[in-house]
Amino acid sequence: MLKFYARFEINEETGDPLTDHDMTQLHYTKITSLQKAVFAKFPDLRSFALTNVASVDTRDALYKHFGPLSQEKLRSIASYLNLVPISRHERRASQLEELNEMPLYPTEEIIWNESIVPTEYFSGEGCLALPKLNLQFLTLHDYLLRNFNLFRLESTYEIRQDIEDAVSRLSPWRAEDGGVYFGGWARMAQPITQFAVVEVAKPNIGEKRPSRVRADVTINLSVRKEIKSEWENLRKHDVCFLITVKPQNPIGTKYSHKLPFVPQVGLTTVRGCEVEGMLDSNGRVIEDGPEPRPILPGDTRTYRVWLDSNQYRIDMDNASHGGEDVYEGFNIIMRRKPKENNFKAVLETIRELMNTECVVPDWLHDIILGYGDPGAARYSRMPNEIATMDFNDTFLDIDHLRASFPNYEIKLSTDDEKKLVRPFRLTFQDVLAKQSSEPIKRTILVEPHVPPSRGPYKANEPKKNQIPFTPTQVEAIRAGMQPGLTLVVGPPGTGKTDVAVQIISNLYHNFPNQRTLIVTHSNQALNQLFEKIMALDIDERHLLRLGHGEEALETEKDFSRYGRVNYVLAKRLDLLMEVQRLQESLNVKGDVAYTCETAGHFFMYQILARWERFESRIKQRQGTGNSSPPVHIIDEEFPFHKFFDNAPQPLFKRNTFPEDLEIARSCFRYIERIFAQLEEFRAFELLRSGLDRSKYLLVKEAKVIAMTCTHAALKRRELVDMGFKYDNILMEESAQILEIETFIPLLLQNPQDGYNRLKRWIMIGDHHQLPPVIKNMAFQKYSNMEQSLFARFVRLGVPTVDLDGQGRARPSICNLYNWRYKKLGNLTHVENSPEYLVANAGFLYDFQLINVEDFNGVGESEPSAYFYQNLAEAEYCVAVFMYMRLLGYPADKISILTTYNGQKHLIRDVINIRCASNPLIGRPNKVTTVDKYQGQQNDYILLSLVKTRAVGHLRDARRLVVAMSRARLGLYVFARVALFKNCFELTPAFDQLMQKPLKLQLLPQEHYPTERLNDAIPSNPPMEIEDMPHMAKFVYDYYMEKVSGMKESQKMWQKPGTMRTSGSPTHKVPAHPGADDDTDDEELNQMDSEQQDVKDDVKEDGKQDAKQDANHDAKQNDKQNAKHDDKHDAKHDEPKFELIKNLVDEPVSESENTDR
């Protein structure tokens, strides 16, 4: 690393980056100057001085000339030159060339090399040979190179986890014949029955590696139907791994996750490959397309894959020198989940950026590298700050505008109160004064203006914002509208998304020719943002959503590329129908509504001519006199009466001449807009293929384009080649995006004349909540890879706009986390609104910390590595959920959160057994981890903290902030108080939680919703719950009371003919109305089958989520998270279900048993 940075590509005097060409020229200059000096002073080296530069610039060549010299001669040369030859003059290997020749797939030599990919047990002590992401970087090349190396290593660590899991599940053992016998099965890996390299293409000119290497991999898919379908649906460019194992352990040997993995399974080789496609029965690749895929007979499937050309060349070189041919022994192919498997495309994007000239806007360059004035890109410091801007519908009224600028004097352009309605155009006098070097006056000139009416129909009225933005939100909106870099820090519930949407809307209306790119961390956040954008006054033909997450949009409209193409084509037909109706209303002959082109001619020669004739007649009738023209003139002369017959009548009110004239003009604007849109859609008539139309839509038509940061990284080359352009970037969830994935969206377009056209970069996030997910502790902490670009900018001192009013949670709940922020107050509605003033029905407190002791001597358990569970807390949470449902709380208003993935699955198990199939109770809205729930909220949160031995990763205050800020009205935390109260990092929150009793206080006499105020003393004394079994027994009794009450109410009236007689057979009464009359044995069998389904779900589905929750704890990098084998499952599931089954099933009377 020292050698690397000692000769880095940077000018040591100016700090400017040096290209490969610059480095070559410097190298030649040094060699030439050495040759000149030697030629002049040292005749013994005349042969060196006269030799071609390229033949003497390697270390071997220099040794050949300078090696035979005596020490005195070398000393005299060095003293004359003031340097030592050879080391300074040898040719330096180009970093870029090395990078381009580097295989992108990790091999076994890297994957299990502890010095390159450290284990998860990194203690934080000592140094590692890893690059760091701190505050400053030498050049953009240095910045990209560090990110490239770290991203590659972090991906390698995740691949190591997946390989260890999949191969362990296959249980490879040594067969009696010396071969490999697989004693298990894995969803994500299959034994290879046949492997063959089928093509090695010739190298391209100037390269040594083959241009393409293809191979065929054959496997036998005799597995369950859904797993077989997953393998058959492998898509083009999906990455798989080819693995060779030569196990030494005999059949039946047990594998242990505590022992080294590689020696246990005998793993010798790992190579990456990229799927081209599955082969059909004729040996041809089945292409992805609209046609249904052919159904292949049997279970044997063959895949055509691309191998890494660089790696193949290295392996063949080794084989030619006596090494083993690794391509003859592959016996396992492993696939990965698509969401976790995009590392190769991201690495290729970073490498491509390093091979091209990265042009970052001048105003942003130094800030990204961490140099200069961190506030230089703030809008108030930018030379092109805009003084006058239309804030559109940002302000509800003039009073709201005045309250939004408390430090400014407001001057109005008119005193007529009737005219003081939005939209408002604001001119900041201090900006004008600054630009003209005059004394600064903090004055705003407010000019209300009436936007031109778009037509006579109610549907033409623009949608308007209804949110009363706070002064800090207005400042964030103003900053986002101005050129430059804007950082908005948005604590939980402060309206980050609303601010983002208003910025987008204002940019759309102020700069109609500019295009805005929206980037978020997750599809969920992007969909939330998009749904709010659709509610504002933005023409939907200008909206476009890229990626695979648009299916989750809660709308019938499709905003994907092909969905927008279909919308445009359908809209074109609708508009042409309107043109035809207009033609018929004017009695014009001919088929003018056939195409957009014919419609354009119709507008030019028929519509425009009639309108110009109308305007001239109006002018003539107005005359030259001072008297106002008659009101009826407009109505009589208007040429499009018949077309607007379907508009609200009368079309012209005949009140005043100006009013009717404006109505006539709005009608013409409506017609003009029809033909303007048809002119835009004309290209879709000329472009015939869906692909060409979608590209045109992306490059020309769309004004607001949304995508995730991952999609931007994967599709950068495609977007650049297409000619994609944009002027503004808005990033939501910026603090959750990796540094490199934040940087890539800046470079999704080619520079124009050497300059980047980006004008605004708005980043919205909260660095006090959870950072990007990095699973390896060494990369996370030592290399600081979890630091987002947003957090680095904040650390550098880039000015931020801190939103300071939360409108999500009760003030009492907000106090649990507002200590983490500079200033976080409450909006008026959370203090005055009825739903915040009323208490939580059935609970004495709106939030409470409930102490949970061991159950049957067990607290926290770890059935497999890092799979933490706590049965007592799981049962307690579910019992409280059941209690809330019995009181009448809606299930969708309740979410159960936990800090560990193992606990999430345990709570789901308990729910499945206790109440999932009971229509009186059902399931909560969500059962998930705190990490996964960031960015979401619900009215009532039940939170399980799981740990009883060590605090674990909740010690990170950022995770605590997320956990405490998800609830709006009620938060109930289940934890071992003795453990968490002594944690210094959690003190501000737990001090408040511990001010209330640590035993749950209930008011079972109440029902949801209650009328009791939150601060009122209840009429009945509260019921104190001692522990979890007490709560479970109480809920059971309360449930039976509810059911019996319902049966009593049913006895009041019975349908004729259904009266039971003494001779009727006796049936068991179900526990709830509508249940099946099963015997006890049938119920137990059903329960066992549900348990088995749950266990299968835990094993197969839990893997991805398990990786998310334990990322930030030195012992919680879930190497085995949800990766426990069947034996581990049996060990922890059987006793767990036994405990659940016996928890409250105490002996009951015969009559109670009949009721059950």
UniProtKB/TrEMBL annotation:
DNA2/NAM7 helicase helicase domain span: 472-776
Compartment(s) where it occurs, according to its Swiss-Prot or TrEMBL record: Nucleus, Nucleoplasm
Coiled coil: none
Protein's UniProt keywords contain Lipid metabolism: no
Main location: nucleus
Reactions this protein catalyses: ATP + H2O = ADP + phosphate + H(+)
RNA helicase aquarius beta-barrel domain boundaries: 172-336
Residue spans of biased composition, Acidic residues class: 1076-1085
GO biological processes: mRNA processing; RNA splicing
Residue span(s) of domain DNA2/NAM7 helicase-like C-terminal: 785-975
GO CC terms: catalytic step 2 spliceosome; nucleoplasm
Keywords: Acetylation, ATP-binding, Helicase, Hydrolase, mRNA processing, mRNA splicing, Nucleotide-binding, Nucleus, RNA-binding, Spliceosome
EC number in record: 3.6.4.13
Gene3D superfamilies for this protein: P-loop containing nucleotide triphosphate hydrolases
Domain RNA helicase aquarius insertion residue range list: 384-460
Keyword ATP-binding appears in the UniProt entry: yes
InterPro entries hit by this protein: Aquarius_b-barrel, Aquarius_insert, Aquarius_N, DNA2/NAM7-like, DNA2/NAM7-like_C, DNA2/NAM7_AAA_11, P-loop_NTPase, SF1_C_Upf1
PANTHER family: DNA2/NAM7 HELICASE FAMILY, RNA HELICASE AQUARIUS
Function: Involved in pre-mRNA splicing as component of the spliceosome. Intron-binding spliceosomal protein required to link pre-mRNA splicing and snoRNP (small nucleolar ribonucleoprotein) biogenesis. Plays a key role in position-dependent assembly of intron-encoded box C/D small snoRNP, splicing being required for snoRNP assembly. May act by helping the folding of the snoRNA sequence. Binds to intron of pre-mRNAs in a sequence-independent manner, contacting the region between snoRNA and the branchpoint of introns (40 nucleotides upstream of the branchpoint) during the late stages of splicing.
Protein name: RNA helicase aquarius
Organism: Dufourea novaeangliae (Sweat bee)
